[in-house]
């Protein structure tokens, strides 16, 4: 019988290209972003919040601010229909998430 742990190293979630700054976490940023259905800008904020202490310091903090500003602009520029769709999507995700707890 084959020991399945030998395959752990080839799983994409168990490797990182270009450093080890995300490997410090019990939950990888991509997993948190994906499971919480975050927007692109929200995902970028999570990514940089997680890595700034281990990689680019102040530069990554500046990127967090930049992506927050972009998310804010997206909300400010959204039509009422877009806002309602986002709210409906959030409610659906929240209800589904609570069903799985």
Number of beta-strand segments: 0
Output the number of helix runs. 4
How would you characterize the largest beta sheet? none
3D shape: flat
**Topology order in helix (H) and strand (E) letters:** HHHH
Radius of gyration in whole Å, from Cα? 17 Å
Average pLDDT for all residues: 82
Strand content: under 5%
End-to-end distance: 35 Å
The share of residues in helices is 55-70%
Structural class: mainly alpha
* Poorly predicted parts: none
Question: In words, what does this structure look like?
Answer:
Helix 1 runs antiparallel to helix 2. Helix content is 58%, strand content 0%. The mean pLDDT is 82. It has a domain at 26-83. The protein has four helices and no strands. 6% of the residues are buried.
């Amino acid at each position: 019988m084959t020991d399945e742990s030998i395959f752990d190293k080839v799983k994409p979630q168990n490797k990182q290209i270009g450093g080890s700054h995300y490997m410090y976490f019990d939950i990888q940023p991509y997993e948190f972003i994906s499971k919480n259905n975050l927007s692109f800008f929200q995902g970028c904020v999570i990514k940089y919040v997680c890595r700034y202490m281990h990689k680019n310091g102040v530069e990554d903090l500046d990127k967090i601010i930049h992506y927050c500003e972009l998310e804010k602009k997206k909300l400010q520029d959204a039509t009422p229909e877009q806002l309602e769709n986002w709210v409906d999507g959030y409610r659906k995700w929240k209800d589904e998430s609570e069903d799985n707890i």
